[in-house]
């Protein structure tokens, strides 16, 4: 039997269709005969002999083989752009699944070709509701791409109707999700909300409504955004989306509406049952309010946070936002309410550094002295000392630098003060400051920190043009890798200085 079948295929391939057909019809076994006829039809299709292939396919006795053969013919016709003929063939397919797949392929191909009437005709003949809804959705997307918005809306509605016919709730929900997302991408927000509301499974519906709300907010359609957000059942998700809508409103200057949206977000957050999740969500809302300049509201929300760590983080975020807005007094008040010593120190350091940038050295110093964490306090004082030195206030810079507790930071600050003095022509004072920095660094017991301090001094000396001294200090570094890196930095500084002098000449 296998030899007979291979012989028949060989006949077809050399164009002996009549002989092949005759030989196939003489096969006694019905299944083998059907398969032989299907193979003949397939080879005819490949040769572009669609009419002959169709005639042969209709002679196949097995309904499954006949359906499969007709599906292959329809697909080949689609590839050849013979859409009308492909549709006629697809309509002859008896197996419902094969017919649905063939019609789907025709509909998608005709939609891509811009033949939307034919695409819709093919799609609406698909019996399987899920396949029909997916196909109609893709046609709608193709219409959107070419600007046929009104027709796309109609196709989306047909897709929605088809999805509602799907029997299984889970599959129906997923189909509706796909349609709703496609509607959002097409900017059909009203329809998207309508589709999302049809989704029965809450775990599918909520993410879709979130996506709709965020997309409409980005598009500036805040009424629709709020409408979608308020339909989200999960309190945390609803709260976070409402917060994002509020932020979008702030960005376009709608501060009054943003305040309302923030209030909605707060109300939703307060309904979260899990205390930890509630605290985390309130923290995010407080930080967002602060960034929007709503400092009083932000502080109120922060005080509602039950978890101490989240409350501290929220207050730190509020303080940082106040600093960015130049509200140093308010930032200081907020920072002092922070329960966590490390977070409080971090916030105070940020305030001090911002004050330095604003040239408020005295206030920065006062704030730095309030920092409890020694490392953060040292870094803040180092920043103040360096800034004062750059401003030419060398006596104060030296006083502050010498108050720094962490030896590495103290020596590095003195080295930077020395650089500023050297640039101002105060060479003798610079040398004294460098010497003091070196003495401090050499007394550091920890080898790693000592190496880092010496590296900072060597680099500072190179910046001040004292290359030979910089090399001497670099050679004192214990760690061989850090020593080489320090020497490399000195060479870079030397080259830069050489180029600068050449430019001045």
Helix content: over 70%
Summarize the helix and strand pattern as letters. Answer: HHHHHHHHHHHHHHHHHHHHHHHHHHHHH
The largest pleated sheet is described as: none
User: What is the first-to-last residue Cα distance?
Assistant: 98 Å
Strand residue content: under 5%
Radius of gyration over C-alpha positions, nearest whole angstrom: 38 Å
Give a description of the structure.
This protein is mostly helical. The chain is built from 29 helices and no strands.
Q: Which helices and strands, and how do they pair?
A:
Layout (H helix, E strand, L loop, with lengths): L1 H12 L3 H9 L4 H17 L3 H8 L5 H17 L3 H8 L5 H17 L3 H9 L4 H17 L3 H16 L4 H17 L3 H9 L4 H17 L3 H9 L4 H17 L3 H16 L4 H17 L3 H10 L3 H17 L3 H9 L4 H17 L3 H8 L5 H17 L3 H9 L4 H17 L3 H16 L4 H17 L3 H8 L5 H25 L1
Helix pairs in contact: 1-2, 1-3, 2-3, 3-4, 3-5, 4-5, 5-6, 5-7, 6-7, 7-8, 7-9, 8-9, 9-10, 9-11, 10-11, 11-12, 11-13, 12-13, 13-14, 13-15, 14-15, 15-16, 15-17, 16-17, 17-18, 17-19, 18-19, 19-20, 19-21, 20-21, 21-22, 21-23, 22-23, 23-24, 23-25, 24-25, 25-26, 25-27, 26-27, 27-28, ...
Which terms would index this structure?
single chain; 505 residues; mainly alpha; 29 helices; 80% helix; disordered C terminus
Concise description?
With 505 residues, the chain is mainly α.
């Amino acid at each position: 039997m296998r030899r007979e079948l291979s012989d028949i295929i060989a006949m077809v391939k050399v164009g002996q269709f009549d002989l092949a057909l005759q030989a196939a019809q003489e096969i006694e076994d019905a299944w083998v005969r059907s398969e032989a006829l299907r193979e003949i039809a397939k080879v005819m299709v490949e040769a572009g002999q669609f009419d002959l292939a169709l005639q042969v396919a209709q002679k196949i006795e097995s309904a499954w083989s006949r359906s499969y053969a007709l599906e292959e013919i329809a697909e080949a016709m689609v590839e050849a752009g013979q859409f009308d003929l492909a549709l006629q063939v697809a309509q002859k397919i008896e197996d419902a699944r094969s017919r649905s797949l063939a019609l789907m392929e025709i509909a998608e191909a005709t939609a891509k070709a811009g033949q939307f009437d034919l695409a819709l005709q093919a799609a609406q003949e698909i019996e399987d509701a899920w396949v029909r809804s997916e196909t109609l959705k893709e046609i709608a997307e193709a219409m959107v791409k070419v600007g046929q918005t009104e027709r796309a809306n109609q196709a989306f509605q047909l897709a929605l109707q088809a999805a509602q016919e799907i029997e299984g709730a889970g599959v129906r929900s997923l189909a509706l999700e796909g349609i709703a997302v496609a509607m959002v991408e097409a900017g059909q927000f009203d329809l998207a909300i309508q589709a999302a509301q049809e989704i029965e499974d809450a775990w599918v519906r909520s993410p879709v409504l979130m996506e709709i709300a965020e997309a409409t907010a980005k598009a500036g359609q805040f009424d629709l955004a709020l409408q979608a957000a308020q339909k989200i059942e999960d309190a945390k998700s609803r709260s976070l989306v409402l917060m994002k809508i509020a932020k979008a409103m702030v960005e376009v200057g709608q501060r009054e509406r943003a305040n309302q949206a923030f209030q909605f977000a707060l109300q939703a957050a307060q309904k979260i049952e899990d205390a930890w999740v509630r605290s985390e969500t309130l923290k995010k809302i407080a930080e967002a309010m602060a960034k929007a300049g709503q400092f009083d509201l932000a502080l109120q929300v922060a005080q509602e946070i039950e978890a101490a760590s989240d409350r501290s983080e929220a207050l730190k975020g509020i303080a940082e936002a106040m600093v960015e807005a130049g509200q140093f007094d308010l930032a200081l008040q907020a920072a002092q309410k922070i329960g966590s010593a490390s977070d409080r120190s971090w916030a105070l350091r940020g305030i001090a550094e911002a004050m330095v940038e604003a040239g408020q050295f005295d206030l920065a110093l006062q704030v730095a002295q309030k920092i409890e964490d020694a490392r953060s306090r040292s870094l803040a004082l180092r920043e103040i000392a360096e800034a004062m030195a750059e401003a030419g206030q060398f006596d104060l810079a030296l006083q502050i630098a010498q108050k720094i507790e962490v030896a590495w930071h103290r020596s590095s600050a003195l080295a930077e003060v020395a650089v500023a003095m050297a640039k101002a022509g105060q060479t003798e004072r610079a040398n004294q400051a460098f010497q003091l920095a070196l003495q401090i660094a050499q007394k550091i017991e920890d080898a790693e920190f000592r190496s880092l301090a010496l590296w900072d001094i060597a680099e500072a000396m190179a910046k001040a043009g004292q290359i030979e001294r910089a090399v001497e200090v670099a050679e004192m570094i214990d760690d061989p890798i850090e020593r080489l890196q320090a020497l490399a930095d000195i060479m870079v500084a030397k080259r830069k200085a050489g180029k600068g002098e050449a430019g001045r000449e």
